[in-house]
Each structure stands twice: as structure tokens, then as C-alpha cells.
Amino acid sequence: MNKPIISIKLSPRDYSGLVDLGNRVFASMTGNLNFLTPIPTLLSVQSSITSVVTAIGVWGPRSNRGSHFDLVDLREKALTLHQLLKSEAQYVQITAQLAAGSDYVAMATIIQSSGFQLANTKTPQGVLQMVQNYHYFVSRKLTRNQVKLSWKKPLNVATVGNVKNYKVLRGTTNVLTAAVEIGSPTRTSFIDTNTTGVTQTWFYWIIPNNAFADGVPTVPLEIIVPAS
């Protein structure tokens, strides 16, 4: 689970939305043992809500609007409420994190008890498919004892960000479970260097990785890597 974060998507000019959020937060946090010392105080939030409600009434409905001064007054009072709610959200976020530590489920529960809503978290894409066009090549830019692996992202990747990194595994046999991870590049290539002093026959695998888990490993590439 990703770290839960409070989301306030309301504009300072969404007057009724600010009032609704303010009332919900005030009601939820009143007597809430998770939040014993709200900053700002709940009384200041309630007072600001009342000011905005009054200003909305003075500004009036669309068919009978008030003066420009009334509109300016409403916008100022709504901006104050918006700022108070942002400060209250910061207090709730910090308080919940101190209470829950790295237990993100508990943190989310504490935050939601305040009346604030959480930002939508990205859902992991699921198990990634095998990378495409996996191959190696020799280049004049490489030394004699180097090999460059290259591949393309898996077919089921919607965006580049769906892949956290690619695990590069190397073994002396074609048994994946006996291989060791030698790199985790974020790009679709990797250079390995033979520093053993003798020619090696190595097997390489690429495994795409995301927030969900490791993806499907490639079939191994058997490569003879000369000594320097």
C-alpha cells in the first residue's frame, strides 16, 4: 500500500464545497481521540465556516446578486476557510503519521476518521509480461571483456512509469534459481564486465519489476565473455 495522502481538490471559489468539507471535518474531529489538539482549532474552523455561509447569503442567488464589495468579501472569507482547511489537513497528516509510523493501513484509518479524503493511489498494473526483443551485441565502444544486453519494455506496459526497474540476473548455468542479481537498471540496456581474468560462459536473464511484483523472466541468453 502506498503512503496515504490527504487530497483537497476544492478551489477557494467552490464556496458550498468548502462549507461542506469544513462541516464534515468539524463534525468528524470533534471529540475524536486521534486529534486532541487540532491546529488550527476547531472553533476557528467553525467560525470561518459561519463567515462564509453568511457571505454567501449576502452575495445572494444568481437572480439577485449583491454588490461587487459583497463578492470580494465572500472570496476573502472563502480563501481564509480554504487556508484553514489546508492547515488542518497538514496537522491531521502529521498526527496520523506519528501515531501509525510505517503502518499505512492504520494511517489511512486515522486520516479518514478526520473527515478528510485520501488522494487516489495508483493501482499496480499487475504482473508484467516478459520484455521484448531481448538480445546482446558487441560494439567498438565496448572493451573486449564487456557484453551489452538490450531489450524493449513488456507488451502490457501502458506507460514507461509502469516499470520500476529491470532486474539483471547472471548465472554459470541455465538454472534461474541459481543465478544472482547483478544490476537493476531503469533503462532497457545493461553492460556487464568480466573482471575474473579468465573467459566465462554466463547465462543472463531480464526480469521487469513494478510496484506489484517481479514480472515474467526472459529465457536465458548464453554468452561467452572473454577475459580482458
Description:
The protein is α+β, with helices and mostly antiparallel strands and 228 residues long. It folds into two domains: 6-118; 132-225, Sandwich (Immunoglobulin-like). The protein is 33% helix and 21% strand. It is built from four helices and nine strands; from the N terminus they run βααααββββββββ. It has helices at residues 15-29, 42-59, 68-100, 104-112, and strands spanning 6-7, 117-118, 132-137, 146-152, 165-171, 180-183, 189-193, 200-209, 221-225. The strands form three sheets. It has a four-stranded antiparallel β-sheet with strand order 6-5-8-9, with no helix packed on it. Strands 3-4-7 form a three-stranded antiparallel β-sheet, with no helix packed on it. The longest helix has 33 residues, at 68-100. The radius of gyration is 29 Å and the shape is elongated. It starts with 5 loop residues before the first strand and ends with a strand.
Percent of residues in helices comes to 25-40%
The number of helices is 4
Q: Which structural class matches the secondary elements?
A: alpha+beta
Total of domains:
2
* Beta strands, count: 9
Helices and strands, in order, run as: EHHHHEEEEEEEE
- Biggest beta sheet summary: 4 strands, antiparallel
- Strands of the largest sheet, in order across it? 6-5-8-9
Low-confidence stretches: none
Quaternary: single chain
Radius of gyration: 29 Å
- What is the mean predicted local confidence, pLDDT? 91
CA-based shape? elongated
Distance between the termini: 46 Å
Assess the beta-strand content as a share of residues: 15-25%
